[in-house]
Amino acid sequence: MSIALVIPDRKLDQLQQKLQQQLPDVLIEIWPDIADPAVVEMAVVWRQPAGCLVNMPNLKALQSFGAGVDNILADATLPDLPLARIVDPMLTQSMLQYLQGVVQHYQLRLDEFSAQQRKQHWKPRSPRKIQRLCILGLGELGQAAACHFLQLGFVVDGWSASLKTLPGIQCFAGDEQFFAAVSQADVVICLLPLTPQTENLLNQQRLSQLKSGAILVNVARGAIVDDLALLQSLDSGQLAAACLDVFRVEPLPSEHPFWQHPAILMTPHISAVTNADTAVAQIAENYRRSQAGLPLLNLVCQQRGY
Ligand code: NAP
To answer: What DSSP string describes 72-124?
Structure first.
């Protein structure tokens, strides 16, 4: 019986130790140092190299080390097994803190004042009017964000694949209601999963449906936004600014125009990271469940891609 941690380019000693404390009788190994692939019953995966699971014939379950699973499902050789993801209240809290900070940054015009400072311009202005927000994606993070901003006194609209009923929030669903969802928002926050349906979803045509002068915040996945269309929308003034935490290629290549664009605020994919303790507890619980033949917690629907 063993668990393989297949998370390349990351120090995994602490995760291994913590998981070992929770599951003292189980061998926890760090890929690629797997003594006997035939005894691996669960793989904890994140950006796993394609093909690395095919020689583990007795795998029963897959566990994502993060909330999103697009990087895992991209592996065409992924075994057809239940896949669970991490759902972490601490990750949600850090996302809410980040989003609130970003909205306040723009409310206070810190973007404009920082540009003025570089030019030694002294020009006081009153705060930007940000009253209405639209959240794209009303899952774990999207619903939490919608409720959080509602409590802070914003008018909140939300958009998802299937229609939701959330007290105080005007909900929209599907392509046909995208315009109604976004067209009045001062800030649009993307919290969609990356799937074949959402790749390049925020293209020129959809970005043009945002209110003139709106601000886009993408904390989901870079490939949901068409980079060129975003640059064009910012250059034309259709969008006032964009805050990006995620990118099509990470780290963002040095020649990418986002780095230098005056209307783009960038952070290096830090809005919300998986908390090791929460992850360990969920991985251990899902291992026990898979051994007992019980359904995993936080199962992903692989057909939908999230
Ligand atoms: P989730 O619980 O799976 O929710 C996804 C939401 O998106 C659902 O409301 C779903 O609608 C909606 N959706 C999916 N496809 C859609 C489509 N084609 N059109 C309209 N709505 C669609 O996901 P989550 O836990 O909230 O996380 C969202 C994403 O955030 C993750 O997938 C991940 O990529 C990203 N993330 C980023 C960070 C970071 O550090 N930047 C951290 C964590 C997560 P239904 O409810 O109708 O199915």
So the answer is: HHT-TT--SS-EE----HHHHHHHHHHHHHHHHHHHTTHHHHHHHHHTT----
